[in-house]
UniProtKB/TrEMBL annotation:
Gene name tied to this protein: murG
Catalyzed reactions per annotation: Mur2Ac(oyl-L-Ala-gamma-D-Glu-L-Lys-D-Ala-D-Ala)-di-trans,octa-cis-undecaprenyl diphosphate + UDP-N-acetyl-alpha-D-glucosamine = beta-D-GlcNAc-(1->4)-Mur2Ac(oyl-L-Ala-gamma-D-Glu-L-Lys-D-Ala-D-Ala)-di-trans,octa-cis-undecaprenyl diphosphate + UDP + H(+)
GO terms, molecular function: undecaprenyldiphospho-muramoylpentapeptide beta-N-acetylglucosaminyltransferase activity
Cellular component aspect of the GO annotation: plasma membrane
Subcellular localization, as worded in the UniProt entry: Cell membrane
Full protein name: UDP-N-acetylglucosamine--N-acetylmuramyl-(pentapeptide) pyrophosphoryl-undecaprenol N-acetylglucosamine transferase
Taxonomic source organism: Companilactobacillus kimchiensis
Keyword Manganese: no
A Pfam family it matches: Glyco_tran_28_C
Superkingdom of origin organism: Bacteria
Metabolic or biological pathway: Cell wall biogenesis; peptidoglycan biosynthesis
GO biological process: carbohydrate metabolic process; cell division; cell wall organization; peptidoglycan biosynthetic process; regulation of cell shape
Length: 369
């Protein structure tokens, strides 16, 4: 199979960047890359993540449109047009066989420029609700890769759509059980619930968890509570020391390389971002989702509904989240091994453990056409 020169672009949030990184990692594992270039913005999260991974990185200056008509949007249009010009220069110098965009406004210019230069193009949509950039690019690209079947309705170009799943799923699927829970003063052999509100943490989830400590201390399972770095100091102040010193509870600001501990978790409680769902379903872990109501088009709720409707997860809307509702849902699952096993099976049924390879096939088919 021919080795490819590939340009990858995506940014703004980890949900756009981590699937791209997982794809690059798998391409390298299969020795399918001749060279790879990542195009992002200097201010975006991708700048740090991609550079730290040792991947060649170039930037363009671009920003998203305001939702209201403003004079500021004229500047945004100017930046978009000039970024197309810079993207063309980057593409002509690098000479890629294919260009893939994983979302975020930065990839709009890069993928559109590649289309104008007659380079094969693909976009990857991670969520049930497509982003503005991907909806725009869908008219021009050769293929649209999706991670949720519900996303089909987001695009009019049905013939271009291929269901691949999220490459992040394949990155975690082979992780084996380990004793890493010991690092957090927990019993590696005891059933564990992880409560995690995302990398920045989530105040409502943290508050409900704090108010449930008196029940967790007496449970026959243990709780790994990850607050997010921003909230950690305040959370610690609000928790009675008897709970902090309990062998049943561990409170942390953040966990590096979190996927490593997922095989040791019986139940995950948290947000329903696309990357989290890809990881959870690849491993078949039961989940309780508390979607963020603050994301664009409420896509986390739609993501969570996609998983909960098949019985792989429970859904608690944030406005209905209380210590009582949180504990009830956790306890109902953790006290019944049959429920756990059923949810795990349902989760694996919708997981896509070969997602990166599926996306790679889309790329190689276009390159070899």
């Amino acid at each position: 199979m021919k080795k490819m020169r590939i340009i990858v672009s995506g940014g703004g949030t980890g949900g756009h960047i981590y699937p791209a990184m997982a794809l690059i990692k798998r391409l390298k594992e299969r020795d399918l890359i001749d060279d790879v270039l990542y195009v992002g913005t200097e201010k975006g999260l991708e700048s740090k993540i991609v550079k730290n991974a040792g991947i060649d990185f170039k930037t363009i200056e671009i920003r998203g449109f305001k939702r209201k008509l403003t004079l500021d949007n004229l500047k945004t249009v100017e930046l978009f047009l000039s970024s197309i010009g810079k993207s063309k220069k980057i593409i002509k110098e690098f000479k890629p066989d294919i260009v893939i965009g994983t979302g975020g406004y930065v990839c709009s210019a890069v993928v559109y420029a590649a289309h104008q230069l007659h380079i094969p193009t693909v976009i990857h949509e991670q969520n049930t609700i497509a982003g503005v950039t991907n909806k725009f690019l869908a008219h021009f690209v050769d293929k649209i890769a999706i991670a949720f079947t519900e996303a089909v309705d987001q695009f009019s170009e049905k013939k271009k759509i291929v269901f691949t799943g999220n490459p992040r799923a394949q990155e975690v699927v082979n992780i084996q059980k380990n004793d890493r829970l010991k690092e957090f003063n927990l019993d590696a052999n005891k059933d564990t619930v992880m409560i995690f509100g995302g990398s920045r943490g989530a105040k409502p989830i943290n508050q409900a968890t704090i108010e449930t400590m008196d029940k967790f201390i007496e449970a026959d399972y243990q709780v790994l509570f990850v607050t997010g770095r921003v909230h950690y100091d305040n959370v610690i102040k609000l928790i009675d020391s008897k709970y902090l010193n309990s062998a049943n509870i561990s409170v942390l600001p953040y966990i590096d390389n979190m996927p490593e501990i997922l095989p040791d978790i019986k139940l995950i409680v948290g947000r329903s971002g696309a990357t989290s769902i890809a990881e959870i379903t690849a491993l078949g872990i039961p989940a309780i989702f508390i979607p963020s109501p603050y994301v664009t088009h409420d896509h986390q709720t739609k993501n969570a509904m996609s998983v909960s409707k098949v019985g792989a997860a429970k859904l608690i809307p944030e406005k209905e989240l209380t210590s009582e509702s949180l504990f009830k849902e956790i306890n109902d699952i953790m006290s019944d091994t049959t429920v756990q096993q059923t949810m795990s099976v349902k989760s694996k049924e919708i997981g896509v453990p070969d997602a990166a390879d599926r996306l790679i096939k889309v790329l190689t088919d276009l390159v070899n056409k």
